[in-house]
């Protein structure tokens, strides 16, 4: 058995053809849907990468694994998907193109091979190098970081899998192609055209300064990236077919979160969990194309990936038997054995302790968002000022004050949306439905209590760590710092 878990960073569900997008951005992913199952209502556990990756690998929410903020390493003692597979004879490899899931912050546990491609010398030699001075920072450090292409993943994946085609394998692949910067290779520019202003190769499109007038240009650049990344996914599918292992392979294609394009007056991600950020695609092609061509509308979460894979392998392990998993095996939906599926999906986002904490609970009709502002004591203010000074952030704040104000101040702490009548989440009706607000507050409180109890059970500790400067520069270029 072979398992390919391929994550496209910042990929929205509604920009793929199989999800109804009018543009042909994803012919290979769309074709894979005919061999697999498309989940129409899949949602992520956070609106930025690091906590989502930890949730995928542990099958738990951020409140349990505690890798929530950018100061948190992935240090949980919770069993991880690659560990369980590795202990049961699978050869395991990860192909990472970005620092938020770097091996040095704990994501390599359970992997036989971990390719930090953004640090790889060969990738550095052929990709534009990322320099903090380009972001207006002082040139203090000599380390260089690359922005790998989706094709670079294939260059390392293909020889790895060729040597292990007769083994059981698990490949965890994280592509940053659909994340800013939106700079698809010229030969894959299909939607933006040469007339559109585009960043240079390897430079970051600073969407923090963008306004309403920039929306279509950025959407076009984003769609170019999807089209290019889809091409590289098609190459992987073709390679597995030529190796004679496609039928015995489980392919899972998904986005870790979406990207906003000014639907609510902002771009990018890591903030308020509107559906453009938490509704993500998930396509699963099972062995021998089981359940091929199905579309399922149940509420699915990315924490369901762990138990689904384990269920398909038939592995019986302590990790599963002890029921720490909060996700569910989606194949029980497909075969009709689960008659009591979930009513709600949840998200939890807080990139820094001094920034707002966003939580959401979403059903089929109603969605509730709760925003908790951090305690603004003398200490937190001083910590924030120290961070701004040490990281040379004052220039970024002056260039795009709205971006930073958004992370510290909000118009309201509660939002309620009727998704049937307002799918775009434009009309906050929290004041009109006090009974619904009371209900969803209790749902969130119960959810948090469950997370706290499970976290305590495994003696979770959120370890702060000092990121290496090489990692910091990479995250700076991606707009996280």
Secondary-structure map:
Blueprint: E1 2-8, H1 27-35, E2 37-43, H2 49-58, H3 62-65, H4 81-87, E3 91-96, E4 113-116, H5 121-126, E5 129-130, E6 145-146, H6 150-163, E7 169-175, H7 215-242, E8 249-255, E9 260-261, E10 267-268, H8 275-278, E11 279-285, E12 294-301, H9 305-313, H10 318-321, H11 331-334, E13 345-349, E14 357-362, E15 366-372, H12 378-390, H13 394-399, H14 401-406, E16 414-418, H15 434-457, H16 469-477
Parallel strand pairs: 1-7, 1-8, 2-12, 3-4, 3-7
Antiparallel strand pairs: 2-11, 5-6, 8-11, 9-10, 13-14, 14-15, 15-16
Helix pairs in contact: 6-7
How would you describe this structure to a colleague?
The protein is built from 16 helices and 16 strands. The strands form four sheets. Strands 4-3-7-1-8-11-2-12 form an eight-stranded mixed beta sheet, sandwiched between helices. The protein has a four-stranded antiparallel beta sheet with strand order 13-14-15-16, with helices on one face. It is globular and about 60 Å long. The protein has a single domain (2-347, 469-477), classed as Alkaline Phosphatase, subunit A. The protein has 481 residues and is an alpha/beta fold. It has helices spanning 27-35, 49-58, 62-65, 81-87, 121-126, 150-163, 215-242, 275-278, 305-313, 318-321, 331-334, 378-390, 394-399, 401-406, 434-457, 469-477; strands at residues 2-8, 37-43, 91-96, 113-116, 129-130, 145-146, 169-175, 249-255, 260-261, 267-268, 279-285, 294-301, 345-349, 357-362, 366-372, 414-418.
């Amino acid at each position: 058995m072979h398992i390919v878990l391929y994550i496209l960073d910042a990929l929205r569900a509604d920009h793929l053809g199989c999800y109804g997008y009018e543009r042909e951005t994803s012919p290979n992913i769309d074709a894979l849907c005919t061999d697999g199952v498309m989940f129409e209502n899949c949602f992520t556990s956070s609106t930025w990468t690091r906590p989502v990756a930890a949730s995928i690998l542990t099958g738990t929410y951020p409140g349990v694994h505690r890798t929530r903020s950018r100061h948190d390493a992935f240090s949980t003692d919770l069993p991880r998907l690659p560990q369980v597979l590795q202990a049961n004879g699978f050869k395991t490899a990860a192909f990472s193109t970005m620092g938020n899931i770097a091996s040095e912050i704990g994501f390599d546990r359970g992997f036989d091979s971990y390719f930090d491609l953004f640090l790889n010398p060969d990738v550095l030699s052929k990709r534009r190098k990322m320099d903090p001075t380009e972001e207006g920072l002082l040139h203090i450090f000599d380390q260089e970081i690359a922005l790998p292409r989706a094709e670079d993943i294939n260059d390392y994946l293909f020889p790895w899998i060729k040597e292990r085609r007769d083994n059981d394998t698990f490949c965890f692949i994280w592509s940053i192609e659909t994340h800013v910067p939106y700079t698809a290779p010229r030969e894959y520019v299909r939607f933006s055209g040469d007339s559109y202003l585009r960043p240079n190769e390897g430079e970051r499109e600073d969407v923090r300064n963008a306004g309403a007038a920039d929306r279509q240009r950025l959407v076009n650049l984003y769609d170019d990236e999807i089209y290019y990344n889809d091409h590289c996914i098609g190459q992987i599918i073709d390679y597995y077919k030529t190796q004679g292992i496609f039928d015995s392979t489980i392919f899972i294609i998904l986005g870790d979160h979406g990207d906003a394009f000014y639907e609510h007056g902002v771009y990018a991600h890591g903030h308020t969990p509107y559906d453009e950020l938490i509704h993500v695609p998930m396509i699963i092609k099972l062995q021998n194309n089981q359940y091929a061509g199905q579309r399922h509308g149940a509420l699915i979460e990315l924490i369901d990936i762990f138990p689904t894979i384990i269920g398909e392998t038939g592995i019986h392990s302590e990790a599963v038997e002890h029921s720490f998993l909060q996700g569910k095996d989606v194949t029980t939906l497909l075969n009709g054995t689960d008659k009591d599926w979930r009513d709600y999906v949840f998200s939890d986002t807080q990139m820094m302790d001094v920034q707002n904490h966003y939580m959401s609970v979403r059903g089929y009709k109603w969605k509730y968002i709760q925003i908790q502002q951090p305690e603004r004591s003398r200490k937190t203010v001083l910590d924030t000022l120290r961070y701004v000074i040490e990281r040379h952030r004052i220039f970024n704040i002056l260039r795009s004050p709205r971006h930073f104000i958004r992370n510290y101040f909000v118009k309201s702490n509660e939002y309620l949306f009727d998704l049937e009548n307002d799918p775009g989440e434009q009309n906050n009706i929290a004041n009109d439905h006090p009974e619904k607000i009371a209900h969803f507050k209790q749902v969130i409180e119960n959810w948090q209590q469950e997370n706290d109890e499970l976290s305590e059970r495994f003696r979770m500790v959120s370890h702060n760590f000092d990121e290496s400067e090489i990692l910091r520069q990479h995250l700076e270029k991606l707009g996280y710092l």
